[in-house]
């Protein structure tokens, strides 16, 4: 059993040394040429003109209430069902399971055909149809032999375990795939449209090419067609210039927020505007350049390498993989964020997905069995957290 070193839960305020490696979408570092550095050298913070005392009154801490499930293999996506129960995808096993959030009992719905796990690819994000009460559809984002794609499947809980998923209906194909940088998050927005995050598979120019589906946030109808009101004619592209987004969530004002992996220096939290250009590969972090949207908060890649995000009690909660911590970013009434705070530093290893579970609770998924962690007994887990 590998012993983890627990880091104290204080937010680092000192300037960190700039690293020279490349952070993949899970935080593993490889040699690569750097991209332009942002003007600010602060880490784990909002833009430098933001005062710390502007943070809104909100619940400011979090504690682990209990372990909901354990011994999961490469869990990635998590989707609560309206009638109760949590759906969880296994990236490497290409299965979707249902977990009773009270007893922890797990039932495998079935394996998703056509998934080709490799590197950071496999079965990733899942989402439940907004019309689930009538259509019982589950949506999934996965890597196939040729591309990344989005499918929907009928879920029939009356069938035997392992046979509860219908044949996948592909609603969108042709998303560029790579060993790394596959994006993968799926979520239905308040507008009942389906949003998906994609990566640029280590080809930065794809992020700036509005004709490519790579390095984007996509918005589509439940059938996979360009959603009404999209910024570009006859296109599912909603925003571009992204390196590798894996977190999507909406606040009570229906603003969309996204977490994004940086390369050499800065990971990001962004407020997403339709048609916005978020800079990659021309800008990493806060560039302050005309034509690009700057992030509202940045972190060093050692502190974050962010995946999923959720919004609860006035804050964005962001799961860190390489950073092995849960970040809280308090939101105010505008389009900016107050200074972030870190929790659970090193306590549970790599953190993949976080989902709101009511007004003051979160579900948190660890990610120690994905090939980059140090699994301990019981990994991986789903934890129930209370925001206090």
Count of DSSP strands: 26
In whole angstroms, the N-to-C terminal distance is 32 Å
Major sheet strand order? 3-26-25-24
Based on CA atoms alone, the radius of gyration comes out at 19 Å
Helix content: under 10%
User: Structural class, judged by helices and strands?
Assistant: mainly beta
**CATH hierarchy class name:** Mainly Beta
C-alpha geometry: globular
Largest sheet: 4 strands, antiparallel
Quaternary form: single chain
**CATH fold naming:** Neuraminidase
**Low-pLDDT regions:** 1-22, 29-43, 45-56
Give the strand content.
35-45%
CATH architecture descriptor text: 6 Propeller
Number of domains: 1
Helix and strand run:
EEEEEEEEHEEEEEHEEEEEEEEEEEEE
Mean pLDDT: 88
CATH superfamily membership:
TolB, C-terminal domain
Count of discrete alpha- or pi-helical segments spanning 4 or more residues: 2
Enzyme class: oxidoreductase
Organism: Streptomyces gottesmaniae
EC number: 1.1.5.-
GO molecular function: oxidoreductase activity
């Amino acid at each position: 059993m590998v012993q983890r070193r627990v880091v104290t839960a204080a937010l680092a305020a000192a300037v960190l040394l700039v690293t020279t490696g490349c952070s993949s979408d899970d935080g593993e570092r490889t040699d690569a040429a750097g991209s332009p550095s942002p003007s600010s050298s602060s880490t784990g913070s909002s833009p430098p003109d933001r005062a710390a005392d502007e943070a809104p009154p909100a619940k400011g801490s979090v504690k682990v209430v209990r372990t909901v499930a354990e011994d999961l293999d490469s869990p990635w996506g998590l989707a609560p069902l309206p009638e109760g129960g949590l759906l969880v995808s296994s990236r490497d096993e290409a299965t979707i399971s249902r977990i009773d959030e009270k007893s922890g009992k797990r039932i495998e719905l079935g394996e998703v055909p056509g998934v080709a796990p490799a590197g950071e690819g496999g079965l990733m994000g899942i989402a439940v149809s907004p019309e689930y009460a009538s259509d019982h559809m589950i949506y999934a984002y996965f890597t196939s032999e040729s591309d990344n794609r989005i499918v929907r499947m009928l879920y029939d809980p009356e069938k035997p375990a392992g046979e509860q998923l219908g044949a996948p209906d592909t609603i969108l194909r042709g998303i560029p795939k790579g060993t790394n940088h596959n994006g993968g998050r799926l979520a239905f927005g308040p507008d009942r449209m389906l949003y998906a995050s994609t990566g640029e598979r280590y080809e930065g120019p794809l992020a700036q090419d509005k004709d490519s589906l790579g390095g984007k946030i996509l918005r589509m109808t439940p059938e996979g067609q360009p959603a009404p009101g999209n910024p570009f004619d006859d296109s599912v592209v909603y925003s571009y210039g992204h390196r590798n987004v894996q977190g999507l969530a909406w606040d009570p004002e229906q603003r969309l927020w996204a977490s994004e992996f940086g390369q050499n220096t800065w990971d990001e939290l962004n407020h997403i505007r339709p048609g916005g250009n978020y800079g990659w590969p021309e800008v990493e972090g806060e560039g302050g350049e005309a034509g690009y949207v700057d992030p509202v908060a940045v972190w060093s890649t050692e502190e974050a390498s962010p995946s999923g995000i959720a919004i609860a009690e006035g804050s964005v909660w962001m799961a860190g993989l390489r950073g092995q911590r849960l970040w809280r970013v308090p939101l105010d009434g505008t389009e900016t964020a107050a200074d972030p705070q870190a929790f659970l530093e090193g306590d549970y290893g790599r953190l993949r997905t976080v989902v709101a579970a009511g007004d003051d609770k979160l579900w948190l998924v660890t990610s120690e069995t994905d090939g980059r962690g140090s699994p301990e007994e019981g990994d991986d887990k789903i934890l129930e957290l209370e925001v206090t």
